[in-house]
Amino acid sequence: MILRGVIENIFGGALSFRGFAKISDLAKLSKIEDTYQRPVDVERSKAILEFLKNSEFRFFSEVTLCLNFNDGNAITKILSGTKGLVEEDIDLTVINKDFKDYKISDKFDSPLLRRIALEFKTTDKKYLSRIDGSHRLSAIDILLASAKEEDKQILNGTVLDYYVPFNILLQQKNDESLRLETAYFHLINSKSERLTSEQNLKSILEGNLFSDAQLIELLGKNALQTKQLYSYVKDYQFLSINSLIDKSLKTFCLQCSNLLVDEKANTIQKSIQQIDAIYADEPKLSANKNVNLLLAFIYIKVKEKPEVFKKFRTWILTNQLFDIPEVNTQTIIDVFIKMHEKRSYNVFVAMPYWSHAEVTEYNKLFDEVCKEVTKKADTTVELTPIMRFSGKSQRIDKRLIDKIIECDIFIADITGCNPNVVFEVGFAEGQNKHMILLKAETDPSVPPFDMDKLQYIPYNRDTYYNSIKGIAVRNILSLLKSEFNIL
After folding, report:
1. Cβ neighbours of residue 236 closer than 8 Å, sequence gap 6 or more
2. pTM for the whole thing?
C-alpha cells in the first residue's frame, strides 16, 4: 500500500508528510492510540458514515496521523533522500522531477520540500496512530468490519475510494515520541475554538444560498420550519425574554423546531409571544437566565391544553424551579408529565366493625368523598371497598395487609381504639403511608402508648356523615397537592 505526498519541516522541527489517499487505505494502516485518545462513539461514527455516503456537501479537514520509526536511521534516510527501505517493511521513494519544470520565481525556498512515496509492505499491520480524525476513520472501520467481501467490491469507487487529505507526523520512536504525540493531540483539541451554533447558522438561515432540499440536508427535517420561525421572530420586540435569546436567536429557533417536530412555525411563534408576556408579568421568571426553562414553557404551551399549562406554570413557580441555574429542557418536561399524568390514587379506609349496615354506610360515604375529590382535583381517586371482598376465600389479615400496601392514602376511624384498627394504623405507619386519622370528638377512649403521638382529626358524631365527608375531602385534596403535586 503506497502513500504519496510531500515532506517539510514545520513549526521549527516537526517533520510533516502531507498528501492525499483513499480513506479506506488510511483506515487500514492506522489505529487508535489508547494512551491519549477518547473511546470511539460508535453512533457518531455511524452518523459520519451516513454523511459520507449521502451528503451533497461531504467534506472534512485533513486527518492527522503519526508514524513512529523503530529504525534509528529512518528519519536521516528520509531527510537525505536515500531511496530504499527506511524500516524493515517501509520502502521510501523520492521523486525529484516533480518540481524541475517550475519557473525560478515559483520555486519553493525550502531546500527540504520534496515529493516522496512511502510503501507499506504489510497490509495487515497498523503502522500509523490516529491523532485527529479518529471518528472519521472509525466510520470506515465499521464499514470494513460489517460489509461482506462482495459488498466491499460494490463499494469500490464510492465511500471506500474517496480521497481525503492527510498529515502524517514522522518521528523516531523513543521515550520522547509518545510525549510529543500526546502533546499534538492536546494542542489540536484544546487550542482551536469551535464556531458557536449561532455563527454556524448565520449564513444558512440568512440569505438564499441553499435550496429547501439542501437546507434539510444541512439542518435536518425541521430546517424549513426553523427558517420560517426565524423570519417571524427576528424583528419582534419581545417584552422580557430578549436578554435570553437575542444573542442566540437562530439557535433558539432551531431548538424550538427540534423540540416541536411537525408543529407549524406560526403556532410556535404565537406561543413564544404568549410566554414572553407571562415572563414579563412574573419578575422571578423574567430574572431567570435559563433558556431551557423557557423552551419547556413553550413546549407545554403548544402541546398541552390550557388547564395543563396552568398547572405547569403553577408547578414551576410553587417549587421555585426558576432557581435551578441549569436544567435540561426534556428533563423539565418529562418530570412534569410524569408527576401530573392521569393516574388512579387509591384510598384505604380502616374502621371498627360496628354492623353490616354501618359498614355499608361508610362505603357510601367514602365513595362520595372519592368522587368529589376526583372532580375537584381533575384526577382519579378510587376507594378500596371497606370490608367487601370478592373472589376466592383468603386469610382476612393477608388481604388487608396487601390492600394497605397497595393504597396511596390510608384513612382510619380510631374511635373506640379498636384493636384491629390500631394494628392497621401501625402497619400503615410502618409502610410510610400518607395517613388521615379520624376520631369522634366525644369518644373517651385513649389510644395506646406511642399511637397517642399521632395527630387525629375530631369529627361530630351526631352529624358524622357530613362531618367526616368534609374533613376527608379537604385533607385528601391537601395531600394530593403536597405529596403528589396534583394542583
Report:
1. 273
2. 0.56
Separation of alpha carbons 349 and 368, rounded Å:
13
Strand partners, 383: 347
- Residue 207, phi-psi category: left (phi > 0), alpha (psi -120 to 50), beta (remainder): left
- Look up residue 190 and give its three cell numbers: 484544546
The closest alpha carbon to 383, from 358, 359, 364, 357, belongs to 364
Please report, for residues 156, 331, 344, 360, 448, the alpha-carbon distance to residue 400 in angstroms, rounded to integers and kept in the order given: 72, 38, 19, 18, 21
Distance, in Å, from the CA atom of 194 to the CA atom of 218, rounded to the nearest integer, reads: 18
10-residue stretch averages of pLDDT, the chain, 487 residues long: 89 87 92 78 80 80 92 85 83 64 49 82 89 88 70 60 92 84 78 72 82 86 92 91 90 94 93 95 88 94 90 85 79 86 87 90 96 90 83 68 94 94 93 95 85 87 95 95 78
CA torsion through residues 191, 192, 197, 202, sign: positive
Q: Which three cell numbers stand for residue 173?
A: 520512536
All three cell numbers of 93: 521513494
The set of cell numbers assigned to 401 is 395487609
